[in-house]
Specification:
Layout (H helix, E strand, L loop, with lengths): L1 H39 L4 H28 L17 H7 L13 H32 L6 H13 L2 H12 L4 H8 L11 H29 L3 H9 L4 H29 L3 H6 L11 H11 L5 H29 L1
Length: 337
């Protein structure tokens, strides 16, 4: 009671101290917006309030997009657009020129095609495991379990972590002198080269990304499961349907629109994979985990001999793929509604 009284006294003190300042600030704003309203009229005021967002969008999104489009058709090493010579589609031709598209070594820009094939392999396995584990987890969490809310929070918690934090945690665990190898050596076993072996690195990148993002898709599928009426399962049980028949004839058909949305969202995220890979392996060992965004980053930012045009052209090609996936997602959501 004493603490509550003191808190109210402090609150009242602050209110009396800052009340004149607050009233002055409100009066200034009222005068300012009154002048603006007289200049643009009542119908123009919505545009005034939208203008800051439009400026932020234009400066940080639209302008870089237009600049990137310009860079894709220019060459040279200069960062300034006016100092870059126009080369037309030469950057795209360099990226797409191959004698045999199944052999990156025969391509003019072999690293680009290695990044594409690595990305395709990553997307295929990562999305398949993501959808599978998310569905299994959602089915388990949809049951009447003890401490169900706790387990839902546990599965969703990795989503709240930054991908860089996730990568650094697992790198500390899996590095040569990390936690797992420390346990193995204490048991008299040899160390496992998790980060310097190409196959281990590729597998771990997939598993870590599934662990990091699975909770988000589990939540979506769980919402889809809970939207299925329980009466359907009761009717199926009365008709003698077993658990598999209820799942295949009721759950999956009714959950399919949500599954399509989860599939497309996970595809879009998988194609853009960068942060976890950048902090975990940096694209190595060699080019084993060199994915498309990492390739663009290397040529546009980290390479001593920066090739902005090549990086911009590669980003436009990737943007085309993402646009296709986004259109699929919109069509899937339209069918769901």
């Amino acid at each position: 009671m004493f603490l509550l009284t003191k808190t109210k006294q402090v609150s009242n003190l602050f209110s009396r101290a800052f009340s004149p300042l607050y009233e002055f600030f409100v009066a200034i704003l009222d005068m300012l917006f009154g002048i603006i309203q007289r200049l643009v009229g009542v119908r123009g005021m919505p545009y005034v309030f939208v203008l800051p967002n439009l400026l932020i969008f234009g400066i940080f999104i639209l302008f870089p997009m237009l600049l990137n489009f310009l860079y894709a058709f220019t060459g040279g090493s200069s960062f300034l657009p006016l100092e870059r010579p126009w080369v037309g589609p030469a950057n795209f031709e360099r990226l797409l020129l191959c004698e045999n598209y199944l052999e990156p070594r025969t391509c003019s820009e072999d690293l680009f095609w290695r990044a594409i094939y690595n990305t395709i392999g990553y997307v295929f396995f990562q999305v398949a495991l993501m959808v599978l584990f998310s569905l299994l987890t959602a089915l388990i969490l949809n049951r009447n379990l003890k401490a169900r809310g706790f387990f839902r929070g546990v599965f969703f918690y990795p989503v709240l972590l930054s991908p860089i934090v996730v990568a650094l945690i697992w790198k500390w665990i899996l590095q040569e002198n990390g936690l797992i190898n420390g346990i193995l050596t204490s048991l008299g076993r040899d160390k496992i080269p998790f980060l310097v072996n190409a196959q281990w690195a590729q597998i771990l990148i997939i598993l870590i990304s599934v662990w990091a993002f699975m909770g988000f898709y589990t939540l979506i599928l769980l919402a889809g499961l809970q939207s299925i009426p329980a009466d359907l399962y009761e009717a199926a049980a009365l008709d003698g349907a077993n658990a598999w028949q209820s799942f295949s004839r009721i759950t999956m058909p009714l959950l399919m629109p949500t599954m399509v949305v989860v599939l497309v969202l996970s595809l879009i995220r998988a194609v853009q994979v960068f942060d976890i890979v950048f902090a975990f392996t940096g694209g190595g060992p060699g080019t084993a985990t060199l994915y498309l965004v990492q390739y663009i980053y290397n040529y546009g930012f980290s390479s001593p001999n920066k090739q902005f045009g090549l990086a911009a052209a590669a980003s436009l090609l990737m943007a085309g793929v993402l646009i296709v996936l986004t259109v699929i997602q919109m069509l899937a959501q339209r069918e769901e509604n």
